[in-house]
Specification:
The complex is a heterodimer of chains A (273) and B (291).
Chain A lengths: L5 H28 L3 H6 L12 H9 L2 H32 L5 H12 L3 H14 L7 H4 L6 H11 L4 H9 L4 H12 L1 H17 L2 H6 L8 H11 L4 H35 L1
Chain B lengths: L3 H29 L17 H8 L1 H34 L3 H16 L2 H12 L6 H8 L12 H28 L3 H9 L4 H12 L1 H16 L3 H6 L12 H10 L4 H27 L5
Helix pairs in contact in B: 1-13, 2-13, 3-7, 3-10, 3-12, 4-7, 10-13, 12-13
Classes of the chains: A mainly alpha (273), B mainly alpha (291).
């Protein structure tokens, strides 16, 4: 361990206070979700609940199909994350291990799609989704995003670092390309798969723009869109609005706390190359 | 390795898909921008460059364009300086457990959706009667302000919100970068009697130049596309369009007014701006920066 100098202790104290201030809004949300609206009306500026109550959560479930929104969000997130991992590792494997004509150009094209902003493809995608009769279905949130360029990029990076011997050994054993993919590629890039999974899940769970454009009926909404609709619809019901917000945000915080090591590694990998 | 059958079996469907949902929409969007395209109407007349000419006279578009650029420059600059500073300070914390805890705490706002956290700010911080900000104003002897009727203060608040909500991401990136700086260099500088500040400017920063450039440009490209917090905190662009940005204006024009041809012209402008930044990035990253 380093020698603790006063300046380092001072920095530590400053940073602790700073991060506490940063966490204030999140803590405020959680505390407010456990207050009653009566208490909020009387003592709007209070921080700590005088009486802890689940009234906000009850009201949220009563006035909005929260359970349904939650399931929609979980469904889209799980399905899309699994698919993005599958397509990303497969395409990444091809780019990392196979030679073919036009390889460089095709890879560049893929990287270029990472730079296309959502607002540019938003109107055409909306019109296409209408034509494909996917409007106002969960398919509209899934189908346009089956290939994630970032996942391909990350997979290629990791697969090209697997020692060639492993591939040769598998081929001598008589494995075809898919056998090699299953027995050599996937087990050897677990950290990358973890990072991809977390990023994709986070992006999908938190997405607001796509649901906003692609969905119309309440029954198909995902949580972030539902939250905004709820907030506009029940303006005097602050504790319930914060309960809905907590239902979206707290699971992500729990995932962060459990997987923080993977996540931090994943961010580092995405930024260093 | 060669196996054209396998390569084709994977890449042909993949690229058909990418073509259909990523590349085609870009061309389709540019195409629509030459039409008076409204899905509600039965005819969509071809109008040449009318939509682009209309942009020149649209004061809301001008505000949105300027605000987007200001947002990108100011918020990104502040983000870079603050996150670098935070990363350097976290790096100096002598206890590992505290370093991990600080990183996680600062990262927590990043894992939440911006619509959610923006809504928390709306009710908890910006509320006219009871928000934290007005409590502070009153503490300092001022009177409550309705922030939604202000011009630049609301825009500034949205910038602060944005920094709060995703500074953790770059902080983590930079902490990792700092861990990659060879210790011998710092020790050598110690022997030469360099202070911590000089050490940071003369050794750490130059070594991290590549990471720094990469992160800056990725952040710029990302900030061009920010939408949710503007939608929640300034849905109609704020007072006199003072908090209107391109993304929100494009959304309004296309999905509230259904003027999709006009909105596509704006998207094309946004696309060209992001393309310019990306090309610039490509040139910068190709430069040889090894030591």
């Amino acid at each position: 361990m380093k020698r603790v100098r006063p300046i380092h202790a001072l920095i530590s104290i400053f940073l602790t206070v700073f991060s506490a201030v940063m966490l204030y809004p999140v803590v405020w949300m959680i505390l407010t979700s456990f207050k009653s609206n009566a208490e909020i009306r009387v003592n709007r500026t209070g921080f700590w609940p005088e009486v802890w109550t689940l009234e906000g959560y009850r009201s949220a479930f009563e006035y909005a199909p929260i359970g349904r929104w939650f399931l929609n969000s979980v469904f889209v997130t799980v399905v899309l994350t699994l698919i993005v991992i599958l397509t990303g590792t497969l395409i990444g494997y091809v780019f990392a291990r196979y030679e073919f004509r036009g390889k460089k150009l095709l890879f560049l094209l893929l990287l270029a799609t990472m730079m296309i902003p959502g607002q540019v493809t938003m109107i055409p995608r909306y019109l296409m989704v209408q034509k494909l009769h996917l409007f106002d279905t969960l398919g509209a949130l899934i189908i346009p995003h089956l290939v994630g360029p970032f996942s391909v990029f990350l997979s290629r990076q990791f697969i090209s670092e697997i020692p060639t011997d492993l591939f040769d050994a598998a081929r001598i054993d008589g494995s075809g390309p898919l056998g090699v993919y299953w027995h050599v590629v996937l087990p050897n890039i677990r950290p990358a798969i973890g990072a991809m999974g977390i990023f994709s899940a986070m992006g999908t769970w938190n997405d607001y723009l796509n649901p906003l454009i692609m969905l119309n009926s309440k029954e198909w909404m995902t949580l972030p869109l539902g939250l905004v609709i709820f907030d506009t619809g029940r303006q005097q019901d602050l504790s319930a609005t914060m309960a809905v917000a907590a239902i979206i945000i707290v699971p992500m915080i729990v995932i962060l706390l459990i997987f923080q090591k993977y996540l931090i590694k994943g961010i580092t990998m995405s930024g260093m190359k | 390795m060669k196996n054209n059958r396998f390569v084709a079996a994977v890449l042909i469907p993949a690229y058909l898909f990418i073509g259909l949902f990523s590349l085609f929409p870009v061309l389709y969007g540019i195409g629509i921008s030459f039409f008076d395209y409204n899905p509600v109407n039965s005819v969509q007349p071809f109008v040449w460059l009318d939509n682009y000419l209309k942009l020149l006279e649209d004061s809301t578009f001008r505000h949105a364009l300027v605000n987007t650029l200001v947002f990108c420059v100011v918020a990104v600059a502040l983000n870079m300086v603050l996150s670098m500073f935070l990363a350097r300070m976290i790096f100096a914390v002598p206890w590992r457990w505290l370093r991990v805890a600080l990183r996680v705490a600062i990262f927590i706002p990043c894992v939440a959706p911006k619509v959610g956290t923006a809504l928390i700010w709306k009710h908890g911080i910006l509320d006219t009667k009871a928000g934290l900000l007005n409590q502070l104003v009153k503490l300092l002897g001022g009177s409550s302000v309705n922030w939604y009727t202000t011009t630049w203060p609301l825009f500034a608040i949205i910038i602060v919100f944005t920094l709060w909500s995703d500074i953790g991401y770059n902080t983590i990136l930079f902490t990792a970068g700092l861990e990659g700086v060879p210790e011998e260099l710092e020790e050598a500088a110690d022997l030469d009697g360099a202070g911590p500040f000089r050490k940071f400017i003369k050794i750490t920063l130059p070594l991290m130049r590549r990471t720094f450039a990469f992160v800056t440009i990725m952040t710029v490209v990302d900030y061009f596309q920010h939408f949710a917090q503007f939608r929640v905190l300034a849905p109609n662009g704020g007072m006199n369009d003072s908090a209107m940005v391109l993304t929100n204006y494009i959304y309004q024009t296309s999905f509230r007014d259904y003027d999709m041809g006009y909105a596509s012209a704006m998207s094309t402008v946004l696309f060209l701006m992001i393309l310019a930044v990306s090309l610039f990035q490509n040139r910068m990253l190709r430069a040889n920066w090894d030591y």
